[in-house]
Amino acid sequence: MRFRNPLLNWIAERPGGAMFALVGILLLLAMLAPILFYLTPIRKVPLVYNLRNLQNRWMTTAVTALAFTLVTALLTGMLAFVRGMDRLIEASGNPGNVMVLSDGATDEAFSNLPPFVAQDLPSDVQKQIVSVPTDPRDPGKKTPLISQEVYVVVMYMIPNAPPGSRQRRFVQMRGMNDIAVAALVHEVKLARGDWPSPAGVKDLGNGETAIEIIVGAGLARTFAADLGKSELELGDTVTIRDRKWVIVGVMEEASNSFGSEIWTRDAQMQKYFGRENSYSSYVVRTENAQMANLAVKEIKSFKRDRTLQAYTEREYYAKMTDTSKQLSVAIYVVAFIMAIGGMLGVMNTMYAAISQRSKDIGVLRLMGYQRWQILLSFQFESLLIALMGGALGCLLAYLAVDGQTVTSLISGGGGGGGGKTVVLRITFDLTVLIVGVIFSILMGCLGGAFPSVSAMRVRPLESLK
Amino acid sequence: MFTRIYQQLAADWVNLAAALLAVVIVGGGLAYVLLQPRLFLLGLKNLRRNLLRTMLTAVAIGVLAVMITTIWTIIYFIDLIQTERSKDLKVIVTYKWSVPSQIPMNFKDYLDPTSPGLLLKLREPPTDQGKPLYGKDDFMIWSFFGGTTDPQKITPDTLIFFFVMHPDQIIPMMDDLGDLDPKLVQAMKEKPQACLLGKDKLKAINKQVGERFRLTSFNYKGLEDLDFEIVGVLPDGRYNASALMNMEYFNAAFDKYENKFKAPHPLAHKRLNLIWIRVKDRDMFDRIGGVIEDAPEFNQYPVKVETASSLIGSFLESYRVIFMAMKFLLVPGMLAVMALVMANAISITVRERRTEMAVLKVLGYSPNQVMLLILGEALFVGALAGMLAAGLTFAFFNGLWGGIPFRIGFFPVFRIPESAFLWGLGIGAVTTFLGSAIPAWTARSVKVSEVFSKVA
Description:
The complex is a heterodimer. By secondary structure, chain A is of the alpha+beta class. Chain A contains 15 helices and 15 strands. In chain A, helix 4 (58-91) crosses helix 13 (371-401) and helix 13 runs antiparallel to helix 14. The mean pLDDT of chain A is 85.
């Protein structure tokens, strides 16, 4: 989520810092509380009475709060997963990148393009393509940031898979004409190793050769687990399509969709996966988002021997929110129904509390407390239970899931297949925290509303009979 | 999938456990009513005495049971379709190395039991004359034809993704379409451009049965736009977002292209996507699979043979974490919340009724009977609320949408099985028992002297 306010953006991007900030604000409020309390009409509400009751009935309080803890932990944990997915989609794609697919293709997997050179693009677009020096020996020589890519979802036979378990898995492979340039286009860096050589093939030393690949950090973990290792090492090989592929580099851990991909030279992909002389996409880097949008328009209206489909890279990934939208809706539905369960639980507790304490209420009324003060005091009690449980639930979810990496799928819907397997980082950020707290407050308020009204209506003399 | 309740019970251990539990609960309940009728009636009176709180507890248990039934239906269905069957297996033949699978159309001739080109090893010995290892109703081919009704505005609503097949193969081979009206199949055979659409797809393109539409292909660029006539709607459920068209019409489009451009369509040679063969058991699967994978006829485009469950499992691999979280976090979490709600409600009741417990003991009720009274009340509310909630969930989702509308991969809806009633009963009873065990034990241990000394 992007806020207009830069401060909010800063907070949203730094959940740890935000947590500290929140604790700081709460401490400040705690210090200011006596002054604020004295200045508000709420000081006339018998809150101490409610606090003492919560303390005396600590078992009931704890069990009710625990139900809230579980409900809030589940809600915020699920939301953190969706936030991770959203962030990954937001972070995938440079604002200046333009993706070119074949006409009608909505996904790279279904796109088919011939090889091209920059001169095949509209002249206005050619002028917008960013060039950078890529050869340290010749800083004056600039290479345009263009990448021709062939993307194939391939079948990978899991080595040493125990009988009865899954024997094969889909793996996403991307072949590029110049991987180092493609890495600049996609802002991918290597954590270890080097880019594949121009030949793209390595001599393994025993008379065997293997095709050089680099793998995303998320996929590297999966491959390492397949090989029974804690970490994938450079030089390890995997077998795909009855051919050995040697790992020469592992990508840096990053929040984008390439973390679950294998990258190699385009020629190898075309040769082994029936994509002779064809590509899935061209990606070109322009100066900025505005230029990218202009380039998209130019390419769409550009008529040569074939029509092209163009998207800004951000636009392409932004369309892949079908899964996350569906999950968000499902999570809110689940949360809503769980909240009803939690609310009814607190309602039950509060009704019981009121029926046990009707004499107390009578005494309070005789002492001069107004009906609204009784209402607020019981509302405060249920709110406090919900907040205690909710805060603990948020903390529990934060400790349990924040930062965990998981494999999932992002897709654009439409029923035509497609979608990408991605490794995403679950993100418990400020948005999730705020939703969790608001959710707890709402559960507490709504759950306590009816019992508080019934407490307010207790007749003092009758209750003391 | 399994339509009979006994099939559902046999197919899944959770169903079986729920059924056994239901027998125990109902049997135990009946025994309680028959052996302790006074306690049972007393329990009912107690529940009625504070109807508001009884209802609150029941509704709390009920709404959580609704959610668990919903979630468990998805888990149950996903688990079931990934479970290897031992009988009536479906063999799927696809391109070995990448997806989407694209194989030459002539591959069907090697595997079609009615074709003279059927691989010799797929016949009973003597191999050149023996009858095929499987019948014509055990074989089908699929192609995929995707297109848009509005090329200027490609959105999920304008996209249609057809499963292309011979109409005769629909009823015998397609899952859950065995009861399809044969008239629809006949209509597809008579009119090549006839198609069947799921109800969601119909709604998305805003068309009715009998109407026509034109489709511009996106996966076979260059083919002429195809006109379709909607002759029927697919049964409510898993095919709500699907569409079926005739293989003859699909093939004719490629012939037209070739006539027009004097050259085949660039993808014509690999326009077949899947071949399905139904076999009677695992041995036959291994035998047929071995023949196909070793056949030199498939050398140019190597194929792999796997069961439907294995292929679906590969496609669903990316959702694994979501399913695991649903199964091992969400469902247990909700069960825990249910148990806590119940524990709270029952412990409050026990605290309020300590005097009553003491009176019961004075009247000659044993501690175990007091405990049974509390447990009986709780289990009655919990089990009944759970079962009713599951029943309402069943009626609501299946009645309204043909199942739970939660699109995962190729599954647009998940039909709630009849066994869900048993889940509801089990969920309600088990969580109630867990939540009320300690309070009931507390009630059992109430000391008469202590209670009356305080009263005095």
